[in-house]
Amino acid sequence: MCKLSTVIVFSDVAAAYYRTERALTTQQPNSQLPAVPEASTELDLEFQLAQPGALAQQRASSWLQAVTHEIHSGTWMSLARDAQIVQTRRGTRPGSAWADLSFAVLAERILRVRDAQRSPLTVASAGKAVPWDGARHWGDQAEPQPVPRATRIEDIIWADDFAVCLGPSSALHVRPVLANETGALVDAFGSHGFELSFGERKTAALVSLRGANAQKVKRDLFRGDATVPVLCEGRGNATLPLVPAYRHLGVTIDPSGNIAVELKLRCQHAWVAFREHRTKPFRCKRISVARRGALLGTFVLTRLTFGAGAWPPLRACESRVFSRTLFALYRATLAVPRDSDQHLSTVEVCSLVGQPDADTVIHVERLRYLRQLVAGAPDQLWALVRLDLPYLRALRASLAWLYSWVYRTTDLPCPLADPEPWTSLMGLALLRASGYAVLRALLRSLQALEGAPVAPSATSEGVFTDACLICGLAFTSRAAWACHASKKHGYRLVTSQMAGANERLCLGCGKCFAKPARLRRHLLNSVQCRKSWGSFQPSSASLPAMHALALPVCVPGVLSGAPAATDPASFHRGLLEALTALDRVDCDTAWCLVKDFVEPLSVLKTTVGMWAAGAGATPDVVEAAADIQLMLDPQLCCDEFRASRTLGESAAVFADLAWHPPCPFPFVLSGEVAVFRLEEPPLQGYVYPFTQSLPLGVATRFMRWFEVCCDVLGAFAQTSAVHPVCLCASCAALEALEPARAWLLRAGFVQTAEGLRSPAS
Q: Last residue of a domain, which of 615, 642, 669?
């Protein structure tokens, strides 16, 4: 299947419901059919009107035919600026569910005519068989059957939206199959009084080429305006556009299966929905944060997660986009004041708004979709799911995640055997976020008492490799530095500067690309073209029009000159010329000059090295260059060190809460003793990291007790700076508050039989 070329033809019917010939669906009861006109064929509307209605052909009851006729009868219209009402025989009532059903019945009749017009090559390409082991679950592959089983991919019809999936046996058959299938569709719809609208968002085709001759056919198909001419019987001709992506039934379909475009569109829709209600519920201080979070989940997150259950496993960049969008929506709902502490971790924000983290959201959406699969998915969908091993593994991971939360509180078997009872459970994940957020808030207060700076939680340790010399900032990656340099100083890559003025043409090899982004990517990976940049001169100033999926083409021109000895991306020509032009060479002057250029440290070092190795370099130049290269170290030339954010996966949301203070707290040893008390915990065994399975009601009561106790511990630690303190708590209560007890003991508090106290001396 993976080496087969695939074609999907999407059909858009112009004004489908308004143009429907009602007599094609059902006639008036006891009415006489008109005679078939002479010389008419099944491709003529008069011939179709002389046939029994679609309901009669499908042997519907006379009562159903009469009801359908009566519901759609009595329609009328009026022309613009005309008061005369005209009775019509076309059209169904807009907005009526019966209109959808009537059109669906008529669609089957139309497709029968389409099938009769197909060529043998198109018939062989339609209804491709998909191997299937017959299993409708996510477990291991079933036992091999004596006779291999398969299911066929059929037409996808939803109201007036049609999609036809074809699988030509060879890439060379794609064009004739496309032309014949589209022509058959135009004729079939035309014979029933409909017209197809052609365009990139109307009737169009997606093509994925695989196997032998795929590259050759791709060059031919996507050349010029990338359209396929279509001949129709008695209806002239049309051109079918080939599109790089198509939005069908609310989802963007990409030939490569990439979900990035759809994910970005989901994020945009979520932000649009958020801004529509921003000044009302999400920013209203009279509405509690928890209620705002619930409204966010209802009005906004449903836009973000539409169809998320069917998404393939997200790659690192896609997971980063999704999790950061979710976090940004949560944080915007909190409306943190400017003068408040901005260091809020993901788990703290999730706890405050009462919504789950990104991983939990994806798990829940997959489980909801899985419930729909089990309830009513057709065999074709199960066959495709069983063949998609990465998605099948993702389903199993979501089931394992759910079972890890509930396996101790139910007598039901593992959800791998019976998924239905497990599709809507997510309460324990929210409680875990609440408990973790409470512990983190306590840890931050203890760190503040210690005097240590509180760093944002969304950072990770790393080696600082790049630096901005102007701002004195160090970064752990080239990407982080480039983002800062682009925003603050207008930095652009050398390849972007090369491609900027030429748009799509490579002046190193003479290739013309479909998009400027592809030229930039080409220059990033081709050292030879960067060295030879400018040696190609095209014969014409205008570039050929190319489809978004077209392969690069060579344009006429002259290639002359020898390539440069050094890659222009490895050094900065302007800095080298400025250093060479210095009249007085000393380290300070040269360093001030180097600091004015915004480039990666590796580029600056290479440029300084070329300055020292140039012809006529004096000993002063060599000495100054050596000193500058030593100073081009983030540890020496930077005042602030910015660690990169995590990759965006929410697996690091519940990071380890380890804390080892370098020295005990500064206690007050004399004065009146302040006494604090903790109540007994409502249950035993539910401790950090809160992954134990237990009833939701019991866990909720424990979490209320846990939050109150952490507030008491925070006040207990803060009071120790002005008074001797004593905490009366049982061993069971202190054990349930781990790791908070361990933090207090490391801070210098003493454990006694009654609980904890500040040291006596």
A: 642
Which residues are CB-contacts of 577 (< 8 A; sequence separation ≥ 6)? Answer: none
Q: Give CA 726 to chain center in angstroms.
A: 52
pLDDT digits (tens, 9 = 90+) for 600-626: 998 999 998 888 888 777 888 888 888
412 and 515, same domain (yes or no): no
Q: Residue 647 — very low, low, confident or very high, per pLDDT cuts 50/70/90?
A: very low
C-alpha atoms less than 13 angstroms from C-alpha of 523 in its C-beta half-sphere: 32
Pick the more confident residue, 144 or 204: 204
Q: Read out DSSP for 29-52?
A: TTPPPPPPPTT--TTSHHHHHTSP
Domain-located, residue 16: yes
144 domain residue, yes or no:
no
DSSP 621-637: HHHHHHHHHHH--HHHH
564 within some domain: no
Range of the domain at 350: 251-430
Q: Are 408 and 686 in contact (CB under 8 A)?
A: no
Tokens representing 318 are 């896609």
Query: Do residue 310 and residue 399 come from a single domain?
Result: yes
Last residue of a domain, one of 533, 559, 585: 559
Query: Phi, psi at residue 559, to the nearest 5°?
Result: -110, 115
Q: What is the mean pLDDT of residues 379-393?
A: 88
281 and 173 together in one domain? no
Work out the angle at residue 49's Cα, subtended by the Cα atoms of residues 46 and 54, and round it to the nearest 5 degrees.
145
Let me know whether 261 and 113 are in one domain.
Answer: no
The model's pLDDT over 51-100, given as tens digits with 9 standing for 90+, comes to: 888 888 888 888 888 887 777 777 777 888 888 888 777 777 666 677 77
From CA 128, how far away is CA 107, in angstroms rounded?
21
Given a cut of 90, whether residue 549 has pLDDT beyond it is no
CA distances to 195, 328, 355, 433, 699 from 346, rounded to whole Å, are 52, 10, 11, 9, 22
What is the CB-side half-sphere exposure of residue 26 using CA atoms within 13 A? 29
In the numeric block, which tokens belong to residue 70?
A: 């009566």
- State how far the Cα of 460 lies from the Cα of 652, in Å rounded to an integer: 10
Name 624's Cβ contacts closer than 8 Å, sequence gap at least 6: 585, 586, 587, 590
pTM score over 0.85: no
643 Cβ contact partners less than 8 Å away, ≥ 6 residues apart: 459, 460, 461, 462, 476
CA-based max dimension of the chain: 115
Q: Binning pLDDT at 50, 70 and 90, where does residue 361 land?
A: very high
> φ, ψ for residue 514 (rounded to 5)?
-70, -30
Spatial CA neighbour of 420 closest among 410, 432, 408:
410
With a cut of 60, say whether residue 40 has pLDDT above it: yes
> How far is residue 574's CA from residue 318's CA, in Å, rounded to a whole number?
38
- pLDDT category at 147 given cuts 50, 70, 90 is low
Question: Are 317 and 344 within one domain?
Answer: yes
**Other residues' Cβ atoms within 10 Å of the Cβ of residue 408:** 10
- Round to whole Å and give the CA distance between 296 and 326: 11
Q: What is residue 462's predicted lDDT score, i.e. its pLDDT?
A: 60
94 and 181 in one domain?
yes
Q: Residues with Cβ < 8 Å from 728, sequence gap 6 or more?
A: 675, 676, 677, 678, 754, 755
- Select from 289, 311, 331 the least CA-distant residue to 390: 311
3-state secondary structure of 183: helix
In this predicted structure, what is the pLDDT of residue 456?
Answer: 40
3-state secondary structure of 411: coil
Contact assessment for residue 163 and residue 8, using Cβ atoms and an 8 Å cutoff:
yes
Per-residue confidence (pLDDT) for residue 424, from 0 to 100: 39
Q: How far apart are CA 36 and CA 71, in angstroms?
A: 27
Q: Which of 68-72, 575-579, 592-596, 691-695 has the lowest mean pLDDT?
A: 691-695
Q: Give me the number of domains the chain comprises.
A: 5
In a domain, 279, yes or no: yes
